[in-house]
Design brief:
Elements (H helix, E strand, L loop, with lengths): L1 H44 L1 E4 L2 E4 L3 H7 L2 H32 L6 H8 L1 H4 L2 H12 L7 H4 L31 H26 L4 H9 L4 H30 L2 H6 L11 H11 L3 H32 L1
Antiparallel strand pairs: 1-2
Length: about 325
């Protein structure tokens, strides 16, 4: 009897510890892939590589970064790119989702074709759009090089200098290369956002829509006052995805514009790549990575706050 009493607590302890042992491999992978790189980046941001080895420099990397004019310019480019990219993708995705929600013939085929850009890598998508506008043999070269449409000598998207800024040194209106980058990035992200919004539209009860039509609501009122509030959580998720992708992606810029012409498309993510791998200033690149992490957190927090305020105002 005493032996059975000793075995039962051991079984109980094993049963209680079993969930931990089952998730231990996942915890180890997360520690290696996420926690260790984050801690190493924080350590690296306070050090700089010297001939004699790593030297602690405190906040000097941040100070040098803040005093760098290209850093301030990249912030403006990031804002212009993020606003244009997120706005264009959300608006286009919403209207395409409305069309697909009408139960068109061959809608399954349309959705399949729509999903093709999403399976392409950023670098491949950037190369495709670059081939469209190359002056010598680009598919749109004849249209862009027409001096009648773009006087006086046509338009070379990848080399055209940006127009004079309207608001001091803030880079608006953007350079033609930035507009092309926004279009290419939106085309790349459009399938996922469209399918996300379409799934949210199809969860709206048809009884509610039919009742509103009986009460005299038109199509715009149904979309504005019925579908949009019910789709708001999904729209916030879609906006999160666009914000995080727009701030952190670098592959499209690398293959499409290379940050040019000049620095007119050099956003923060590409500046991070330039400092880290072109200039080999890993300490300064790590400090910029921490700043971008804070920016990501602020953007997400601000979007959540605006969403809560909008929900309370209804």
């Amino acid at each position: 009897m005493s032996r059975i009493a000793l075995i039962q607590p051991k079984k109980r302890r094993f049963r209680n510890a079993l969930p931990f042992w089952l998730i231990l491999p996942t915890i180890i992978v997360l520690l290696i892939v996420q926690v260790y790189p984050a801690l190493y980046t924080m350590w690296l941001s306070f050090h700089e590589r010297e001939p004699k080895g790593w030297e602690y420099v405190g906040l000097r990397n941040f100070q040098r970064l803040f005093h760098q004019s290209l850093f301030h310019e990249s912030i403006g480019h990031t804002i212009v790119f993020l606003v244009g990219y997120a706005s264009l993708t959300m608006i286009a995705g919403f209207f395409i989702a409305l069309l697909l929600n009408r139960k068109l013939r061959l809608s399954g085929l349309y959705i399949t074709l729509l999903f093709i850009p999403w399976i392409l890598a950023d670098i491949i998508a950037g190369m495709v759009f670059r081939l469209l506008v190359i002056p010598d043999y680009g598919l749109l070269a004849g249209f862009l090089q027409n001096p009648t449409i773009f006087p006086p000598k046509g338009l070379s998207v990848l080399t055209a200098v940006p127009p004079h800024p309207w608001f001091g040194s803030f880079p608006f209106p953007p350079a033609p290369a930035m507009i092309l980058l926004i279009l290419a990035s939106s085309w790349r992200a459009l399938p996922f956002i469209t399918l996300l919004l379409l799934a949210a539209m199809q969860t709206v009860p048809t009884e509610v829509i039919e009742s509103s039509r009986i009460d005299g609501a038109n199509g715009w009122q149904i979309v504005r006052f019925i579908m949009t509030p019910l789709m708001l959580p999904t729209m916030v998720v879609a906006l999160f995805s666009l914000i995080l992708t727009g701030v952190n992606s670098v592959g499209m810029i690398f293959s499409l514009t290379g940050g040019g012409p000049g620095t007119s498309t050099e956003v923060l993510s590409y500046l991070l790549y330039t400092i880290g791998w072109s200039q080999l200033r890993f300490g300064r690149a790590a400090s910029l990575a921490l700043i971008m992490a804070i920016v990501n957190w602020l953007l997400i927090s601000g979007t959540l706050r605006l969403t809560r305020v909008e929900e309370r105002s209804r």
